[in-house]
């Protein structure tokens, strides 16, 4: 489908397909090629020369090539209309009866079938389960199983690259039917043999010795100047940078020491109960045991932290040689959006513009926008973005500006003249800034228009109703805004492909939210472009580094490392966060410490946006297995240092014993592969064929309309029924945090991932700096982890079958699923100080001098571990402290609610609906930081704060009344209470707001809960042993 040819809307289940043009009446898409096969109903298609395929030259009866081939091979070989025998056409295999034909052209070109025609036959065989021509060799090429062709099969013709399939042994057990022919003149083997025939005997012998390694070729002095470049291109594209031993070895020693100290401390705590407060003591010990377990899960995956370096110059030397075609791999980029009111179209537009302007070959980039809300506002905004891109992209590439998102480029408070030498830069920058401001006004006008929905729904410019007026019941929609034909900038250069996609939605179907939208993009991109790699971004994550894709290619395209890499994860960086990062939005402890540790094991976990995938890994294939070195088998003679191959065993009849069952096994494998492909990928032959192409590329269709029909088919709401999508393929369903689950499945198959941290941040996004939004975001993440914990994909028991997941990697995944449950002991532990202050009891007995050493050593080991982590990671102490504070804030609020909601979902089946995190920004700098939004997540932390503050006042008052001796035991309790209050201090500031006054509703709820808790405590007092006093009935009041 070419650019700007109209919006295509359709439903495969309803057999509807409409093309809506910009200013014309809607036209039904019927018989786009003008010729329909009278046998199967498919399009006739074109020949390899681009002409209309004609099966019968006598009457011209319309028949497609697959039906023509089938009729010649299996049928009567006669034309259905004129009953004339079909003659053999160019590129068709011979059948019985062709020898009688006096066709000079066929005889002369018996074996002169060009590579283009051969590849066409291979693709036809994969699509329709038919074979003709010479098959694929077992040793040199992949074994492609035929795919069952239903009534929807479309013929495919044209050129297609067929390369080795690294995953053939897993999914493709059967081969195409083979017909043995001699070497074709165009094949490497025959060409080499023809050259050798022209050489003399001595030259051929020298050539053979050179290949065997016994004779070195003479050095060519003329190539010496280029040897340095060649040697540089052969070097690795990346390397590991180990942490200096002076930093990492003390860190590991302290971890071991801390583990030993922790064991002694817990032993002391268990063996020394507090008899007058057994309840308090037992609760505290249980909490401390869980904290120790959680610390082990979090700490030991950080045992092997590494860093990485990339060499972009070597990447260019290897894959971008002058005078040769660019060999960099193509990349499909996915951007997802739902609600234009919460995800402003201007934010999405900046992300799209940064993608189109990236430093990468334009013909290797395709950008797909998933509009899961079917919003006409998003559609029209994308149309405006495509027009502005014609001016913005050449400006970015001409002056090499960074970043290439205009909103953030023009708002940067830096010297934009630095390193700029072109005299016209200032003039063109001012003109471009004016163009962008006009573009913003047009986008804002569209957003203002979208706030008032007409009664009859939205109407397009040509008077056609917008197909997505009903967001829950609409057909699939596709629009190519920019592409290789029709997409040029103001300077006449081509622009990368830009495609708008809105998948079909119908009532009664499960659409699986964002994961379902991403899987729809995987399938439609496999039909239209089929790049071997994919990058997924949120609508607010723009490219801050125009070379980010090149950084990822240094790992994915590395000949040694890249074959087993399933994805390259970049750290997430954010704009618009307050200087002190009050709510730990940057999350640098996780991205700069934990992820580096995982990179040294089996790779980082997948955490959402900013991740470049290998398409074959998302398709459920396993990584290629390195060939094992053959065992050395000696021939028992002293000079022999080689090995000899074992001879095959033969049966008594002199025939190989396995030969009798070969035919049966091939037929069985053929049938199983046909069934597996439909069950695995769905019933789209063109898409199934694309999954077999490891190096990417689209099987050329007879016409763009055929691809269009398949694209509408694969985004239909019922396509995934009875397939493995969401269970084994693509983004995995079953959790709100589909990213963690998807990466976990890949690691279980044996893949590894890479963590890439370029000096200039690759991507930047927006973070919710408001307290309520931040807690809701953390709640969504935590609930996803709880859902994984209660699913069959729990890393505690899943993935042991093949043993491909490393133990420390499993520890990390277990930690990602159990961390929300830490909220239960954390809530109890934060309540204990107030209880101790109100009751006068404590969780510890009287500590001796020897026992105090355990506490001192434990606190020292905790602080030393943190300091050494900061030393080798480069994280500042302020960021580390903010992370510790928000661990407590989120633990007693969002994590707690996530556990409760997860249990309700498992036990009672109660589903929880989440709203999209708002990406809108406030006009005032950090104005959103002080905005208050009511949510029940604020109640538990506020209650804990009030209880502890009341406890501190009560404890000090009691010590003042009881005299000097009461102050000694009070210090331990006050230290415990202040530990809680200090950790909750950012929450207290956020609660006060800009006017330093807490909302009335929060105060009322918190005081009410604190009062109820205090009254119940006075009435029940469960943690203190009851003591029996004298009986006043027997001895009176003066006893």
From TrEMBL:
It catalyses: [(1->4)-beta-D-glucosyl](n) + UDP-alpha-D-glucose = [(1->4)-beta-D-glucosyl](n+1) + UDP + H(+). The active site is at 372, 739. It is found in: Cell membrane. Its cofactor is Zn(2+); Mn(2+). It is a multi-pass membrane protein. Gene3D superfamilies: Spore Coat Polysaccharide Biosynthesis Protein SpsA, Chain A, Zinc/RING finger domain, C3HC4 (zinc finger). GO terms for molecular function: cellulose synthase (UDP-forming) activity; zinc ion binding. One of its GO terms (biological process) is cellulose biosynthetic process. Its EC number is 2.4.1.12. Keywords: Acetylation, Cell membrane, Cell wall biogenesis/degradation, Cellulose biosynthesis, Glycosyltransferase, Manganese, Membrane, Metal-binding, Transferase, Transmembrane, Transmembrane helix, Zinc, Zinc-finger. Belongs to the glycosyltransferase 2 family. Plant cellulose synthase subfamily. The keyword Glycosyltransferase applies. CDD domains: mRING-HC-C4C4_CesA (cd16617). PROSITE patterns: ZF_RING_2. Residues 37-83 form the RING-type domain. It is an enzyme of class 2 (transferase). UDP-alpha-D-glucose binds at residues 336, 342-343, 372, 513. It comes from the Eukaryota. It comes from Olea europaea subsp. europaea. Pathway: Glycan metabolism; plant cellulose biosynthesis. GO terms for cellular component: plasma membrane. Binds 2 Zn(2+) ions per subunit. The keyword NADP does not apply. This is Cellulose synthase. The lineage of its organism: Eukaryota, Viridiplantae, Streptophyta, Embryophyta, Tracheophyta. InterPro entries: Cellulose_synth, CES_Znf_RING, Nucleotide-diphossugar_trans, Znf_RING, Znf_RING/FYVE/PHD. The chain crosses the membrane at residues 818-838, 850-868, 888-908, 929-950, 970-988, 1000-1020. Mn(2+) binds at residues 514, 538.
